[in-house]
Amino acid sequence: MKDIEIVLKSIKNKEFLPIYFLHGEEPYYIDVATKHFENDVLEEDEKAFNQTVVYGKDTNYGEILSLARQYPMMGDKQLIIVKEAQDLKLEESESDAFLAYLNAPVESTILVFAHKHKKLDSRKKVSKELTTKKFLFLSDKIKDSQLATWIQSEIEKFGYKAAPNVSFLLAEYLGSDLSRIANELNKLKLVLKEGDVLDNKIVEEHIGISKDYNIFELQKALATKNKERAFKIAYYMGKNKKSNPIQMSIGALYKFFSDLVMYHTLIGQSPSVIAKEIGVNPYAIQNFAEAARFYPLKLATRIISVIREMDLKSKGLGVRQMEDDEIYVEMTFKILNIDQIKIN
Prior knowledge:
CATH superfamily of the largest domain: P-loop containing nucleotide triphosphate hydrolases
Order of helices and strands: HEHHEHEHEHEHEHHEHHHHHHHH
CATH class of the largest domain: Alpha Beta
């Protein structure tokens, strides 16, 4: 995120580099930076002549460099944005040409690459040269332990206040898709004004997360072996699959019980050390301590197998594809009775 902040500051201050190569596994920050380039670099009357957007799958480095060597019309700068740059193929001959351009870029051109979902190969000469010239900017995945804090900061950026645990609820339900989280918070502009409090009721009504029936609550019920509540939540979520996509729920439970397995291997360490090793907020360690009482290491490991089985069933891979409501109930039953069931 630090790298992207440098890029945004550069745009805001109108202090431009000739090349920005944005790359990394987190597409959200790359999209944010790209949008700012599109909207905030050139004046509206300059964009028609001096702003060009191309896509990686439809072009190549030769064509991009040819555009970059042109000069702006009726202005001081031209902006070239290469979206989906991860689709570009860098041939050896093009690599040499790109390296030459990196060492002598056209100062009147701002060349932006949006290389999403993966990092540029650090072993390549081009990557090393981009790093040396300080043209390379990383957008890394946010850690799960930092997600609730990030959501809290985004809520504050929108000018809202947050009720206790709302950021944790959103983190559990929406996962680490930052674009989705930002979109959901942006929708609240229609119902909230600056200074209003974002509470569970608003989340339930406008984001579709029930404060009582969501993956966060199901996870807690399973972790404490509250059978009646777990089945009640599972049934509700299965009947409201649009608000509770099965793949997201399977992913969340897989992560929780995988972290529980790791917790077992770290018992004896301090809570802060365990939290750091697992990659969660220290507040969550008590949840694992409680779950560990009901699910020793052997059972927690077996639960991972059950969740994998449910994932296959949800996709119809090698088994009969099941409806979401069936999967929710069967998965809940098997987890709660993991000490009695037979693992295939």
